[in-house]
Every structure is written in C-alpha cells, then in structure tokens.
Amino acid sequence: VVQCVGTISARNFATLPMALSPCAINMSSGIRRAICEQLPQLKNIYYALEVPSKVQNSTATRPLLQWILPADVAQHENELLDSVKRQQFDTSFIEDVRVVPRNGRNAAKVEFQIQPDAFAAHLLQADSVVPKASAFQEEHVVVEYSSPNIAKPFHVGHLRSTIIGNVLANLHQHLGYRTTRLNYLGDWGTQFGLLALGVQLGSISDDRIREAPIETLYNAYVMANKAAAEDPQLAQRARELFTSLEANTDPTLSCEWQKYRQYTIDELTGMYDRLGVHFDSYEWESQYSQRDIGDVLTQLRSAGLLQREHDGREIVVVDERRVPVIKSDGSTLYLARDIAALLERQRRLQFTRMLYVVDNGQADHFNALFSTATALDASLKDKLQHVKFGRIRGMSTRQGKAVFLRDVLNEARDVMREKRFASATTKANSTLNDEHVCDILGVSAVLVNVLKQRRQRDHEFSWQQALQVNGDTGIKLQYTHCRLHNLLERFGDIELAEIKPSWQHLTEEPSDALAVLYELARFDQCVWQAKEQLEAHVLVNYLFGLCNATSRALKRLPVKQEKCPDKQSQRLLLFRAAKRTLQQGMRLLGLKPLNQM
Ligand code: ARG
C-alpha cells in the first residue's frame, strides 16, 4: 500500500530541512485519524513535496535551493537523493526519494518514501528531536519586547509584550536563527522632569527608591504631576529639570538618574526571572541623545524629509504624513529616538529581521518609523515588523488594583495556594504551601492564558478560567508533565536506553498510542508554524492536544498492570517521548516544567 501522508506546498519550502524529519508531517486532523487507523497495515509512506518548476531565490526558498536546481527537478533525481542523504538530519527513515514530473502543471512532485518502523523509532528514540543543522544561522533576528517605562506602571500591555516577545525569540532560537533579545526601556521625555521633581518635592531617600524602585518612582511621578497641574511654576521647574537632564548640565541629577535606572533593572530582572524571560541587552531611550538625533536630523534634512515649522518644531514628511520629531523647545520626541535607535541597531547588530512586539495602539508610530527609516536606508525594507497585539481586560487583583506587575504575579501565586488548600484532602501536605511551586503554577496559569489567545484579539482575563486543572490551562500542562514524570520515575530501574523502539507493541490497543505518536510527529511542524505566523497560540494549542492524547493513553495503556514486559517497556518509551516533547514545548513558552505539584 502506498500512502501519501502529507504535502508541502511551494509556500512552505523553508520547512524542507525539517520536512526530512517525519516530525514535520503536515496533516489535517481527519487525515491523521485515518492514518492512525491504517498505519499498522502500511508498507510505505510517502511524504510528497510539490516543487514548481520556477522557484524564486528568496529567504524562504533558500534551504531548498541548496539542494536542487528547481528548474529541472526531474533531471536531477539522483542529485536530489544524494543531497537528501547528505543532510545532517536523521534520515534513516527515508528509504527513497522519487521525482514525479507533473506534465502540464509546470511542476514536479518529490516523494520521500518513509519507512514506518524507522519513522516510529525516530519519534521514540532517546535523543531529542531538535533539528541538528539549521539553514537559518545566517539570519539574525532581533526581537524587541517588554520595553516598559520608568516611572510609569508596568501595565498589562507590557506583560503581553514580555510574554509574547519571549516566545517569539525562543522559537527563532530553537529553529537555529541567530537571535538577539532587546528590552528598550522608556526613561526619557518631559515626564521625567516631573519624576525628578517628585523625588525632590517628596525628599525621597535613595534607600527608599532602592527598596521598591518601580512603585516609589511611580508615586513620585503621580505626586509631581498633580502638584504641577495646580502650580505653573512647578510645571516650569519640571521642564527645566528635564532640559538639564537632556543637556547633561547637572551632574548630580544625571548621576541620580543613572542610579534609578539600575534599581529599576534590578527589580525588573527579578520579575522577569519569575516569568522565565531574559534579555541579551537592556537599552534605554536616553541612550539616543541629542547628538545621535542631530545626526539623524542631518540625514533626514539632506534626504529632503524634514520640514522646520515657524514655531521651531521639526516635522518629518513621509508617505504624505507629517510627524513631529523635535518639539519647539528643541527637545526630542519618541519617534526621533526610535529612528536613531533603529539606525544604530542596524549598524551594530546587522540584523536581517527586526521584530517590535508592541501593542496595537502604536501602529501609527511604527508605520511612521518604518517609512522614515526605509526612506533613509532602503536596505531596511522588508526587515522591519511591528508585531501587534490587542488588549487584555480584567487582569487585576481581587481588590481591583493592578498597577504593578508584581501585584499580578503575587495574586496568581496566592490564588493558586488557596485553591490547593481548598482541594487538598489532607491539609497536612507540606508541599501545599510551597512558595516556589505555587509561584510557578500561578505564573504558568497567567502565561498560558495570555499565550493561548490570538495575538491581535482583545481578551478578557479571568482568574477562574486561567486556573482550571481540566480546562485548557497552564495548570493542565504542568499537571500532565508531573504525571509523566512520576510514571517514569516509578519505573526508573527499567533501563530505557537498552530498549529498541518497536511500535508493533503499541498498535494493539485502539489508536491511543498512535494518537500520541502522531502528536509527537507534529511538534516540529507546529513550532515552525508558530514562528511563521508569529503566533504562540499555535504551539499552546498543540500542547493541549498532546496532553489530551497523553492523558487518554495514560488511562488506557497502563504500565504497572501490564503483564507483557515488551509492551510495558514500549509504553514507557512512548510516555518518555511525550514527556520530552511536552517539556520542550513548555520551555519554548517560558514555563518551568514541574516534577511534582
Ligand atoms: N516604552 C514604550 C511604551 O511603554 C514602548 C516602546 C516600544 N518600542 C519602541 N521601540 N518604541 O509605550
């Protein structure tokens, strides 16, 4: 029986390196079910690839072009076969590659004949299924995410950016892209004059700021804002403070500023750790000083993009839009700093792609940024992308206050602890109150609840929903991981490394084992798709599916009660592979997989 289990269209050529791993098989769930039922009888599986006769040399098709001359695929059958064999992927399961010309369709079909035993063994084998070679290491992807402002609360929008950006960076890194993670903190603009004023008015000590920088600085800002609204003299003083900060004429003030920034990073790093997030570099709006911006203005002017207004404002005119970059008092605006930052990053990092993970509300800003920057440097065209996302509503503590991220995370932890106590049969269990476990569970609930949504959609957050064990939640992922871990630990004395995968032992039961196997086979494909669409929910939903298939298999394919030692050990191999894949997926989401909860 010959069966074609999947096609790769010309659209996703870039998946080809992974297509050679059976993990990439792209199937609708209907086909998957059919195959689960038929697989035991199949002799050969074909993995088909449509190759149009003309392939444009683009980033997406480069991996393919490394192997074949697409214009005459049919004449190069042997070369294709050779080059497939030469790949660093585990291709032991590919028995043959055939090229089938498609007359009249201006295309050819390449079929990879896959050997079912080797295919299953590959999925069950001990080594991880991470692709070993990457066609993408030449690409340098910079992801800018989180980017909160000093003196303003770390709001839910920043949380969404932090979580989504981290996953996008993880996905690229996992697939072998060179990846740089940036946090671009807002510490500049006239409101920082107010902040400095607030610290002076309140005679706030350094110690107090160090203790809780984000909250203290925010309170100082709010206080000064109020005071300045009532007293024009204070408002004037705030403006002057900012001007002297920007011109660097007051060394004490500049030095204080430097310290606040450091304290803020220290506090943020602690929260990022809880969220499983990290950065390669923290950068500041203030880094792009008058001087860099002066250079940018010169460039803009000589490109004919800049207009000076009567009141002294400088306006960029691009794509029939007029966007101010310099205020009438000479101070720089957000857009001016962003242009300077982008050009500087391009020089320093030589990126091939730059993703800005920032909420929908800033779409106009990024349009203006991208048009202006591309007008100055045409090579930036197609490299820049604003990864937009919608709002999250309702993420607040039960007292209704959620100005600070820390409150949200602590709330998640506390709610989790209460739930654990409420559902525990023996309250004496000492792990119930385990701070670490409660925190990880709470954070998992929040992360997954945010990530399972389509990015662009607005979303209503509910603690009730986020913390369910049985629904599609982070708790479910953790719970399944713990079950798999405990099972494997209980049979720790069975030396799994010695056991040869033999999936015939797995096919006797109804399709429970095969369903898990096919979920495993889909992992790479989902990772790829999530990266292509810049949508974490693709991976999250995949993991829910993997957990559901695994739970059913855990119920119907017992290990302990199984008498036949072969069946027993094959089931263990299957559950080990499920655990490994779940773990890998969870880590990509930024979760810390628990072994016990
Ligand atoms: N700090 C800004 C804010 O909170 C977001 C920065 C986004 N990144 C950028 N390059 N403009 O609104």
From TrEMBL:
Name the UniProt record assigns to this protein: Probable arginine--tRNA ligase, mitochondrial
Methyltransferase is among the record's keywords: no
Role description: Catalyzes the attachment of arginine to tRNA(Arg) in a two-step reaction: arginine is first activated by ATP to form Arg-AMP and then transferred to the acceptor end of tRNA(Arg).
Aminoacyl-tRNA synthetase in keyword set: yes
Top EC class for this record: ligase
Gene transcribed to yield this protein: Dmoj\GI24765
Keywords on record: Aminoacyl-tRNA synthetase, ATP-binding, Ligase, Nucleotide-binding, Protein biosynthesis
MF annotations from Gene Ontology: arginine-tRNA ligase activity; ATP binding
Residue span, DALR anticodon binding domain: 477-597
Source species: Drosophila mojavensis
